[in-house]
Amino acid sequence: MNIVSFFAGAGGLDLGFEQAGFNVIWANEYDKDIWETYEKNHPNTTFDKRSIVDIPADDVPDCDGIIGGPPCQSWSAAGAARGIQDKRGQLFYDFIRILEAKQPKFFLAENVSGMLIGKHSTALDGIKNLLKNAGTGYDLSFKMLNASDYNVPQDRKRVFFIGIRKDLNFKYEFPTETFPKITLETAISDLKDAAIPALEFNNTNGENCTIPNHEYMIGGFSTMYMSRNRVRNWDEQSFTIQAGGRHAPIHPQAPKMKLIEKDVRVFVPGKEDLYRRLSVRECARIQTFPNDFTFHYKKVAAGYKMIGNAVPVNLAKFLANSIMKQLKANDKLKKKQNTKADKLPV
């Protein structure tokens, strides 16, 4: 089945769908810092670099599915949470505009759990109604998932909108299957001794990294960062990988940070040398990008941003597999019904 991708970023969602057997024939991403990474890792996908607001629906190829993660900063509970009042939040409407025009069999849209906070309830209900009524209509399924339940070594809660075109006569069911938790030890312990610090001004080491992208941001830690523990043990899952490198979790080689008073913590005295941010490659592993997926950037902050904004590949693959399975089961059922109808006496 052919699909197209909007707000593709580095392509974590796209890669998961490809691993499940879908063909990503066309993708769109407006951030120039990401272009080289996407193109080199998805060489068989036609890549459109315009903003979605400038893309006429006729320029988008016909397809079986549309996937994407409209920008989430405006919905984040940790930020200003302006939601649909923010221009980035309004990009959801352009996603719906394309959906309405192309009418694929299904769509998937991903966003942050901050969409669920009370102040956004009216906007969220409006988006759901627009998705349901796009074109001839879609049966909409909506759920918040934690990536840690789906072979991703990270606590990461995100909401998913999955719609099936009404004429297919079935509603997508989120699978109830989950998987054992993957620990940081399983995910990144083999990388422990090879990480190198970024160059001055957090410029990349480039090809001097023995392992591609295995470099970490240098520089101080803000009072906000030091307000809570940022270390998870080897036998735990990672904190959420965020888009900002300065907010990257601390490597699990370090002991958990010491509480001094409310909202004030310090690195354990005498062990300060153990405290470093996770590297770009370690964050990519935690987001379940494969080792041969290389990120291209000049500033390490751009690497963290690409990875932190991505949908974890394993979670994307899990959902893609379930969509593929349900679409095929529905096709099989329809063929069976048509065969029975053909055999009825005239």
UniProtKB/TrEMBL annotation:
It catalyses: a 2'-deoxycytidine in DNA + S-adenosyl-L-methionine = a 5-methyl-2'-deoxycytidine in DNA + S-adenosyl-L-homocysteine + H(+). InterPro entries: C5-Methyltransferase, C5_DNA_meth_AS, C5_MeTfrase, C5_meth_CS, SAM-dependent_MTases_sf. The active site is at C72. Signal peptide: none annotated. Its EC number is 2.1.1.37. One of its GO terms (biological process) is negative regulation of gene expression via chromosomal CpG island methylation. GO terms for molecular function: DNA (cytosine-5-)-methyltransferase activity; DNA binding. It holds the Pfam family DNA_methylase. The keyword Methyltransferase applies. The keyword Transferase applies. Belongs to the class I-like SAM-binding methyltransferase superfamily. C5-methyltransferase family. This is Cytosine-specific methyltransferase. It comes from Maribacter aquivivus. The lineage of its organism: Bacteria, Pseudomonadati, Bacteroidota, Flavobacteriia, Flavobacteriales.
